[in-house]
Specification:
By secondary structure, the protein is of the alpha/beta class. It contains 11 helices and 24 strands. Helix 6 packs parallel to helix 7. The longest helix is centred in the middle third of the chain and has 24 residues. The protein is elongated and about 100 Å long. The chain starts with a helix and ends with a strand. The N terminus is likely disordered.
Length: 480
């Protein structure tokens, strides 16, 4: 293909935009419209990022992924895309495999689907890489070169991938190619957004000269940790970073006006966020006026964590799961993800009144979340009307501890402090009998297999602490 033909092929006007892409030494400022990723209160608002590497997702796994409201598929989906450190070539066409997955997801739910599309690294296992090769072959320098004219080649993901070239953002045809590729993704009808990894100051903070693990002010290094470092002139650094930072906002504006999908790791949507188990962090998460989507990471939240999140969550702050393993359903699923929630009746309120720092929030399906945010508490409960908790197991029957004295039994619990006496004991009955015969003893704990030797009976007085879990202990309270 002649250079003129390549230029003509790239000189397209972006649909929905006013004229061709801007040119010049430095990028113009653009404030994009905000994205509108899928958000629904019917169930817990979840997002997912990841992929399986050595195969395709099974139908059961796809059905599981469809429970998430946003799904971003990582670049290493399927064997050819995960090959390294020498990458596969464009015939791998990983974007086609991801589109196939997204088509199956879209058939099951209203999920917002996100394609991994790096903003710096030109991974060779994308079919799109062939266009970069064609431009280079026809004299249109498209790979990033340092001030000596050397093409940069770096590694990524802990040297999982190497021999990677980088987009030269100072070249208008590279910008056109990158934006057009995103638009082509969306024309499939099943790609809503992109994960623009290694984005600039509005995202990951990956630019030439970024303060990342020892990079100099005009350097671009192999992940900043080891390997090659490439040097650039100050003027080039500023121009490159200007256009690199511009592209995520420009692309976000396109997507916001078409699919509504996010550019994750851009200015408005990032794969990081508050600790979902921290009520205050979740409640104050969207303080940056430009951000409309954050992801609070926790694949399988425990009850207290889920209560903190639900008591404070506001639209746009997804409970996020990052997972790239081979046991998707078992390691990312939890029962409550299938429970009906309903829209909240409002923000959480303090109960019984202001200053208690105990918060309660009700949801449309009758769900009631209570969270104690006091420093020494940090625990919560969730009442799911359609899923009442199972009844507790029956208490063990009392055991005899001598004439007219019995005792409760607690398995794998102990008491602390206020030891009035101790002795060796071979059974729990012997221990509780010792307590009954010891002045001042009201509670006992037989440490038969807690890692200490030999088995010891502790007789406790009335000032002992509340029962706490400890394996290998049987304890109880005297009943007289």
């Amino acid at each position: 293909m002649k250079m003129a033909a390549v230029v003509a092929a790239l000189a397209v006007v972006v649909a929905g935009q006013d004229g061709p892409l801007p040119t010049g030494d430095f990028a113009p400022t653009i404030i994009p419209e905000p994205p509108k990723p899928y958000w629904n209160w019917d169930r817990i608002p979840l997002s997912f990022h990841g992929a399986v590497k050595d195969r395709y997702f099974t139908p059961e796994e796809i059905a599981h992924l469809a429970k998430f409201q946003v799904v971003a598929t990582e670049k290493w989906y399927t064997p050819c895309a995960s090959a390294g450190p020498r990458q596969s070539g464009p015939d791998c066409a990983v974007e086609d495999k991801i589109i196939g997955l997204h088509r199956q997801l879209k058939a099951l739910s209203n999920v917002t689907t996100v394609m991994y599309w790096n903003s710096m690294l030109d991974f060779s296992f994308y079919a799109a890489h062939a266009k970069m090769e064609a431009m280079e072959a026809n004299g249109m320098q498209s790979y990033l070169r340092d001030k000596h004219g050397v093409i940069t080649e770096v590694c990524n993901d802990g040297d999982v991938y190497c021999n990677m070239t980088t987009y030269d953002w100072t070249k208008p045809w590279v910008r056109q190619f990158w934006v057009d590729t995103v638009i082509n993704f969306t024309k499939s009808g099943v790609v809503d957004g992109i994960f623009a990894d290694h984005s600039g100051k509005w995202g990951n903070g990956i630019d030439i000269g970024a303060d990342k693990k020892g990079q100099g002010p005009n350097q671009y290094c192999n992940g900043g940790a080891k390997g090659n470092c490439y040097d650039f002139d100050t003027n080039f650094t500023v121009r490159f970073n200007s256009w690199h930072d511009w592209v995520t906002n420009y692309t976000q504006d396109i997507l916001s006006k078409t699919t509504g999908g996010p550019v994750i790791q851009g200015d408005m949507a990032v794969m990081r966020g508050p600790n979902p188990c921290n009520f205050d962090e979740v409640r104050g998460a969207l303080t940056n006026a430009s951000q409309v989507m954050l992801e609070a990471r926790q694949c399988q939240p425990k009850s207290d964590c889920l209560a903190a999140y639900l008591a404070a969550v506001q639209p746009g702050v997804y409970l996020h799961c990052l997972y790239n393993g081979d046991n998707l359903i078992a390691e990312t699923g939890f029962p409550e993800m299938d429970y009906e929630l309903g829209a909240p009746h409002g923000p959480a309120v303090e109960v019984p009144g202001p200053g208690s720092n105990v918060w309660q929030r009700t949801f449309g399906n009758g769900v009631v979340v209570t969270y104690d945010n006091n420093l020494r508490k940090k625990n919560g409960t969730i009442v799911w009307p359609d899923h009442p908790p199972p009844p507790p197991p029956p208490s063990p029957p009392p055991i005899p501890c001598g004439p007219s004295v019995t005792s409760t039994q607690l398995f794998n619990y102990t008491f602390g402090h206020d030891d009035v006496a101790t002795k060796l004991a071979t059974t729990s009955v012997e221990c509780c009998t010792f307590c009954a015969e010891t002045k001042g003893c009201v509670k006992w704990a037989w440490h038969y297999a807690d890692g200490t030797s030999p088995p010891m009976c502790h007789a406790h007085g009335s000032d002992t602490t509340a029962a706490k879990k400890l394996a290998g202990v049987i304890s109880g309270v005297l009943i007289k």
